[in-house]
Amino acid sequence: MAKKKKNIPTGVPRREIGEGMVIRNTGSSYTVRLVDGSLVQCRIKGNFRIKGIRTTNPVAVGDIVSVSEAADDACYITTIRPRRNYIIRRASNLSKESHILAANLDQTLLIATLRDPATTTTFIDRFLATASAYDVPAILVINKSDTWDDDDRELGKALKTLYESIGYPVYIVSAATGQGLEALRGRLKDKVTLIAGNSGVGKSSLINALVPDAGLRVGRISDIHHTGMHTTTFSEMIPLPGGGELIDIPGVKGFGTIDFAPAEVSHYFPEIFRFGKQCRYGDCRHTGEPGCAVLPAVREHYISQSRYDSYLSILEEASEEAGADKYRKPF
Ligand code: GDP
Ligand code: ZN
């Protein structure tokens, strides 16, 4: 097999076709949308590995690449522009290889629901912290507002107030009735947005509501060869009617876990980070150290208890991984 690869024509005359964005990755080939809107199927040529990381796919959806035509008429991706950001996950639990899910994201939407299924604040907070670690701005969307009773409306409002006070935009929507979607459309316009959320929260319904012909696109996926489909996840880019793209990663609910260093966990909780600047010790973990400014802020409700609990759960995990035994629960 390795020998055969070497037979791909090297050094033969090639014609530059131009630059474009990778909009689909099927494992064996990449679909690139050129600047003029036309689509070309490409293979890759050259070494695009990220230093220090072994990846199953060197090129990902969202990558800006240049495409050339070789003497055999096939199209090749020949260079890739440096990525602004990218999200990655381990190819499998035991694997040392990672899979790049998407690159050059402008933002990500987390779709959450109060019930059926209930999205926990722990899940929301972990997602937001991970997005921040990946340098991807996150937006919270609470779906299925059409099913809410008065208590749910109160809870929805409280969550909106909480997350907006930290700096995250929050949209309360219903994919079923269209409520709140106009405002959300404005937020998505001309942006590349990753859609995430637990299964059942309405990811597909929302995509269909935002992109009237997305249903057709989902149908088109079945045309693609399914070889290796069960071992690797492929992302797809869905153009929005008003400009911009949604990235859907079938079967992926969030970003997976990141190995946070204990000392950096608070960097990804903006309000904890802000209060933490006033702690007596620069390396304060906010778990009962003398002169901690975060604990009083939690007690006085400047920092929400649920956010603090999420912070602790990530810190606990990070500390276990780092082999630290100093951690203890303050309350
Ligand atoms: P996904 O797994 O996140 O893609 O979720 P789906 O889009 O498949 O939706 C899961 C279920 O929730 C389906 O039965 C949808 O009809 C329902 N659903 C999605 N959005 C809404 C909504 O805004 N309101 C209501 N009442 N049901 C919804
Ligand atoms: Zn502290």
Describe the structure.
By secondary structure, the chain is of the alpha/beta class. Helices cover 27% and strands 22% of the residues. It has nine helices and 13 strands. The protein has helices at residues 2-6, 121-133, 150-166, 181-188, 203-210, 214-220, 270-276, 294-299, 305-322, and strands spanning 15-25, 30-34, 39-44, 64-69, 75-80, 86-90, 98-103, 107-112, 138-142, 170-172, 192-196, 236-239, 245-248. The strands form three sheets. A six-stranded mixed β-sheet has the order 10-9-8-11-13-12, with helices on both faces. The longest helix is centred in the C-terminal third of the chain and has 18 residues, at 305-322. The model is unreliable at 1-6, 216-232 and 325-331 (pLDDT under 50). The site of zinc ion (ZN) has 8 residues, from loops.
